[in-house]
Amino acid sequence: MHLEYQVYEADFVNAGAASSAIKKTLKQLNVSPQIVKRVVVALYEAEVNAIAHAYGGMIYADIEPDKIILKVEDKGPGIPDIAWAMQEGNSTASPEVRNMGFGAGMGLPNIQKNVDKLNVTSTVGVGTTVEMEVNFT
Amino acid sequence: MDKTPFFHALSIDEDTCIGCSHCMKTCPTEALRVRDGKAVLIPDRCIDCGNCFKVCPVHAIYIKQDDFEDIFKFPVRVAVIPSVFMGQFPNDISVSRIYTILKEIGFTHVIEAESAVPFYTMAKNKYADENPDIKPLISTFCPAIVRLIQVKFPGLTENLIPLRPPLEITAMYIHRKLKKELELKDDQIGIFYITPCAAEIAAVKSPVGEELSIVDGVINMDSLYNRVYHEIKKQGKGYKEQKLPVSQLSADSVLSSLTNGERRLSSAHHSYSIDEIHNVIEFLEKIENEEIEDVDFLELRACDQSCPGGILTCDNRFLICERVFNRARKIADRERKGEQTKDHELEEERNYLMRNIKVGDINPRSMLVLDDNIAVALEKMKKIDGYRARLPQTDCGICGAPTCDALARDIVCDNAEMTDCIFIQRNLEARGNMDVHESLKIMEMIWGSEKINDYVKKK
Question: Which of B310, B336, B367, B427 is in Cβ range 3.0-4.6 Å of B197 for a Cys bridge?
Fold first, then answer.
């Protein structure tokens, strides 16, 4: 099953809408609650990243009988040093974003903790694509 | 996943039901449908919250209770009454007078359900200390909330604090005390809880995480209120009461069944107390998505204003809150002056009660699962999406399901047909694919023959 959601730049009000919708879907599929939680946490982080750091983007979800494949594709400044961004606490978030409770530098590390496969590709000045996979068993 | 059937306290009287669908529209778990002109309950989805009971215009939804005469099967008969029961009566009717009347109408002993709250609070705080990784911890005080989490938020069942609620601990205490004191056998003591809601009945009849409740029977608060109030009226205005010793409840314990009652006693740094079931659902959605983080403790109650808003209470919930609050304030005054005595007998049982306070695992019992096999469920979900796209999204309920989404799901689960939708019927009629008699037949299956055929004649 294929699902798509659009996210908009700095639209923090609606952050979580896509992860919420995907959560509802997975709950009906008898995916174990622990795995649903991991998917939702990882996707929520990626969603907020696209909202906070980029100019919005698209979320694609493909649900297969044994796993979910997620792709969050944003148009934005890109990440110059992915390895640096993967470390806990490293963040380029503006003070405004931090004041809203986002941007603590836990985004990518938190995603890594919750998914079975993670692939981050980025071109500076163009955008970032975060691909994630979570196995159901 | 737990698959044993739920016991339900709520039932629908078919003869009284007029098939108006008000209950179906208000149910927070979409547990009701209309079939053949009557409301039908889907047992796996119902959490006994009682919202349907509140909106039924003809009182077709009733709550099974134990027969009052059942108490006389026991030589020793204990009434376990929650503090909201006292809140049903004006403040000039004393707690001692209510105790007296309860004894006159048949009980041998009276104890307040909140007596064990100090142990419950202690055990909760201890559990929080021992499980710093579980966030947020969710109180199991309200049984409708426990069931809501089991069916709608299965991922959060492990956040529930697996403790017996105060009423069960109090029942355990009084049972043990009387057994020792009066040298009785277990079956000679009858413990009866006076309930403000349906969920408590269900919880006593089929408790989660424990095998059997120590409570022998449940009596609805409204029916006991009638009995007690009748006695008060008979006593008349000139009644001179004899003071009876009453439970030595602390102000904190008296307040515990109100909103914020638990939260104010919790040692958690970051906690919320939320009442009314839709508010709770909204908040749990956010908790489940981890949109709200670092929450240590949640006090969740299914009814507005917590237990004073229970469906079996007999007065306005705000008035009840005020009375319970006033009583607590008086006790707090006495506590400050050092006049309030502690219940030493209860205190002596602390070790025994604390040892037996835990319950077993509380398991998820998701109502949302389409099939145990993910591949099959995925197929069903694709079909649901297909049907949903063709439905009008008006959620009019004419198909006998509460929403278009619910109908799409019902179709895929073989419990409904696409042609149940009135928009689809009209469309088919316009294309010449259905005649008016066919569509009337369908409406008759949903709403019953009386609604469809006799309306014109009635006028």
Answer: B310
B136 touches chain A (CB under 8 A): no
Q: Does residue B55 surpass a pLDDT of 80?
A: yes
pLDDT of residue B295: 93
Judge if B21 and B116 occupy the same domain.
no
pLDDT in tens, A99-123: 776 666 667 888 888 999 999 988 8
Q: What is the DSSP string of chain A?
A: -EEEEEE-TT-GGGTTHHHHHHHHHHHHTT--HHHHHHHHHHHHHHHHHHHHTSS-EEEEEEE-SSEEEEEEEEESS--S-HHHHTSTT-----HHHHHTT--SS-HHHHHHHH-SEEEEEEETTTEEEEEEEEE--
Residues of B in contact with A31 (CB under 8 A): 374
Q: What CATH number does domain A2-135 carry, 3.30.565.10, 3.40.50.2300, 3.40.50.720, 3.40.830.10?
A: 3.30.565.10
Alpha carbon of B376: minimum distance to chain A alpha carbons (Å): 8
Question: Does residue B346 share a domain with residue B419?
Answer: no
Percent residues over pLDDT 90 in chain B: 70
From chain B, pick out residues whose CB is under 8 angstroms from the CB of A20: 285, 289
Distance in Å, alpha carbon of A20 to nearest chain B alpha carbon: 7
Classified as helix, coil or strand, B169 is helix
The pLDDT-based confidence of B457 (bands split at 50, 70, 90) is low
Verify that B234 and B338 share a domain, yes or no.
yes
Mutate to test the interface with B, among A30, A35, A67 (most CBs of B within 10 A): A30
Q: In the numeric block, which tokens belong to residue B246?
A: 């009453």
Query: Which of B155, B371, B385 comes nearest A30 by C-beta?
Result: B371
- Identity of the residue in A28, A40, A44 whose CB atom sits nearest the CB atom of B377: A28
pLDDT higher than 60, residue B183 = yes
- Write the ipTM: 0.72
Q: Model's pTM, two decimal places?
A: 0.86
